[in-house]
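C-alpha cells please, single chain.
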Amino acid sequence: MVHIHENRGGTISSLGSIEDFNDMVLDSGLTNAGFEGEPFTLSKKRVWRRLDRVIYSQEWAELFNSTRISHLLRRLSDHHPLSITATRTEDKVPSSFRFKHMWIMHPNFQEMVKQSLGAPIQGYVDQAKAATNEAEKQFDRLPSEANLITLNRQNIALVMLLTLNLNFGGRKATANSLKPEKGKPNSFIP
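Here you go.
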C-alpha cells in the first residue's frame, strides 16, 4: 500500500513502511502506473487492500508512450490479477534529454532553472500545493476512483517539486517535511 485509502477493514500495521516505500519510489525516479478497475487487489474475508501495483522507470516511459494497468476479476486466488497493456508508437522520437539528479546539487542550478523557466521554483511549488489542495477537496466531496487518481498524481507532482526545492537549500526531503496539515489525512503518494 502507498496510501491509507488503499485499505478497508483490518488495521494498518505500519505507516512508516508506507512512507519508506513511497520514499524509495520517489528516490528511484519511478512512476506509479495507476490502474483501471476494482480499487483493491486483495480481498480476504473482511479485509480489502491494494497491495499489487505496477511502477515503471523513465526508460520504460520513453520506450512505451502508453501503459495501462487493469485490475481483473479474481478467480482462484484472493488477489486480483493485473493486466498490463503497453503500446509503442514507432514514429515516436526518443527524447535526447536526460535528467541527472546530481545537477540539483550544483550551486548555480537554481539560478539556471529560474532563468530558463522565467520564475522561481517556489512559484511552481505554490501552484502544485494549490492543485493538490483542490484535488483533496474534490476527493473529500466525492471519494471516487477517478478523484483518488487525480489526488495521487497531484501529490506526486508536489512531492517532486518539494524535493527539488529542498535540495536547492542543501536539505534532503524527508517524510517529516512532507507531513499533512493538522487534521488533514496523510495524502502523500508518489
